[in-house]
Amino acid sequence: MVDDLIIGGEKFSSRLIMGTGGAPSLEILDAALAASGTELTTVAMRRLDPAARGSVLDVLRRRDIRVLPNTAGCFTAGEAVLTARLAREALETNWVKLEVIADERTLLPDPIETFDAAERLVADGFVVLPYIGDDPVLARRLEQAGCAAVMPLGAPIGSGLGIRNPHNIELIVEFASVPVILDAGIGTASDAALAMELGCDAVLLATAVTRARRPELMAQAMRSAVAAGRAARLAGRIPRRRYAEASSPLHR
Amino acid sequence: MNVTINGAAHELPAGATVAQAVQRLTGMRSGVAVAVNDEVVSRGAWEATALAEADRVEVLTAVQGG
């Protein structure tokens, strides 16, 4: 069955988008990315360190994985717009995962700055994928502003708390006509499966894999979970009932 | 002339270009982007763009993240 994910007119057969943060080494990251089957992976933009050896870009190039720069570390729309423009110049992509955080303690996205930056980046020709709270109204407004996808969080970045408000994620999915990518909060495979069962089009995760005891094995688990959750969503789950419904005939 | 490159003070000859500033850090050209005083200078313009006293040069690349 062909079931491609389409973002900004580009097709992906994997619905697992990976991040690269937190991996103990490029070798471990490389093995985890390969095991995950991902075709799209985020990187951050930072000051060039002349002493750094090896580059995450080499890993992605070797694996033929498309790079998705983010604006992690930005607190204002202005910083995010400049970072996106630098990423476009360095990486030759007009795609950007827009991330404007409010504070370092929660790393929660700032909706006002994010919306401002999204409007400016869309006007500048970017394919914008904004990281947002689980707010159905903001998601809709960002779609109307021309974003190519919306990326609501399940829980704060790196928390591994899973999806704290499944109802809001369902509402976002119900209203959206661009892909909904569950981003942040995934702790283990069942969280990723749940995101897909709720109707998300893809899942973005990093920490759950890169800081797992065995990153490569967790990457495999996430790949299976995303595929299983997607299949279950398409198959259509049975309704929940208050009482039993016999699955065998009751009388002979 | 004194400029700041990635937050550190550097002494460059008068009329030095963005390309010379980048050269202070790396010989790499691909995967690298430059902003001078918060404005992106595209790679094709590095040689032709002269720096001025007290300019702030940022040289960025992709790292693990997200």
UniProtKB/TrEMBL annotation, chain B:
Pfam families: ThiS (PF02597). InterPro entries: Beta-grasp_dom_sf, Mopterin_synth/thiamin_S_b, Thi_S, ThiS/MoaD-like. Gene3D superfamilies: 3.10.20.30. PANTHER family: SULFUR CARRIER PROTEIN THIS (PTHR34472). This is Sulfur carrier protein ThiS. The gene is thiS.
